[in-house]
Amino acid sequence: MAETPSAGSRPAAATALRCGVCGAESRHPPFRPGPPEQPPDLDLRPGEPVRSTMARWLQQCPSCGYCAPDLSRAHPAAAEAVRAAPFRSLITDTSIPPLARRFLAWALVLEETGAMHAAGEATLQAAWVADDLGKPDLARAWRLDAVALWRGGPPLDPEQTVRVVDALRRAEAWDDAAHTAETLADAGPPDPVAQVILLERRLIEAQDAGRHTVASALPPPSRRPHASHHRIAGRGEGLWGALRRWLGGKR
């Protein structure tokens, strides 16, 4: 998971940020990811070179432990979540890999502030860390936790439901994965979703819990933006909106 700087690149200078929870000041380098050059996984983990930059996706306050993509911003309820026992216990739990701990801490804050889908996303990212570290038991557990958080929020659209199916498959929850995939397929989803869910159903039938990319189901270019590019989705394009554009406007 180590980052490989591009030839001739220089690390960006760290800037001082004030924690949005406790007000402590710390220095963090800015992170502006470029576009991935390789296709994403079926769960939309971005391809390289963005894939190897996970250590820079979140900032952490060295004083209170608050984690966020932008440390200087915090939901009004974040301070209460950071002070609570579950958060304090989590950030000191040495049985959890440090980077995964950061994503889970961010997920806990998001869950406590009611952002269930975003909490599921952060929990899935902890599972990606476990994948990279060769810890399949942790990866399975956190994928199932991500599914529970996604399902605990507002109703999921077809694009997000595909990711639920993939998380269940990767976690070897075969019956749930098969039922969810069948229900989605029967609902007549958009064409790119239908193509991906067809592949997922084949993988589930074969009890294949491995990593597969979107390129396995969709023609190129099948790239996804970095997971931190939420402002794109926030403007209404949606999780797979850019993917549809890159596929020539398929629906």
What would you say this structure looks like, in words?
With 251 residues, this protein is mainly α. It folds into two domains: 57-155, no CATH class; 156-251, no CATH class. 45% of the residues lie in helices and 5% in strands. The protein is built from ten helices and four strands; from the N terminus they run E-E-E-E-H-H-H-H-H-H-H-H-H-H. The protein has a two-stranded antiparallel sheet. A two-stranded antiparallel sheet has the order 3-4. A hairpin with a 6-residue loop joins strand 1 and strand 2. Helix 4 runs antiparallel to helix 5, helix 6 (158-170) runs parallel beside helix 8 (191-205) and helix 7 packs antiparallel against helix 8 (191-205).
Helices and strands in order:
Blueprint: E1 15-18, E2 25-28, E3 59-60, E4 67-68, H1 78-83, H2 85-91, H3 98-112, H4 116-132, H5 136-152, H6 158-170, H7 174-186, H8 191-205, H9 230-234, H10 241-246
Antiparallel strand pairs: 1-2, 3-4
Helix pairs in contact: 2-3, 3-4, 4-5, 5-6, 6-7, 6-8, 7-8
Summarize, please.
The chain is mainly alpha-helical. Helix content is 45%, strand content 5%. It has a two-stranded antiparallel sheet with strand order 1-2. A two-stranded antiparallel sheet has the order 3-4.
**What count of structural domains?**
2
Strand order of the largest sheet: 1-2
Q: Which band does the percent of strand residues land in?
A: under 5%
Helix content, binned percent:
40-55%
The arrangement of helices and strands along the chain is: EEEEHHHHHHHHHH
Mean pLDDT: 85
Tally of helical segments: 10
Unreliable stretches covering 5 or more consecutive residues: 1-9, 222-251
Number of strands: 4
Instruction: Supply the helix-strand structural class.
Output: mainly alpha
Give a quick account of the main beta sheet: strands, pairing sense, barrel closure.
Answer: 2 strands, antiparallel
Oligomer: single chain
Question: What general outline do the C-alpha atoms trace?
Answer: globular
End-to-end gap: 35 Å
Radius of gyration over alpha carbons?
A: 18 Å
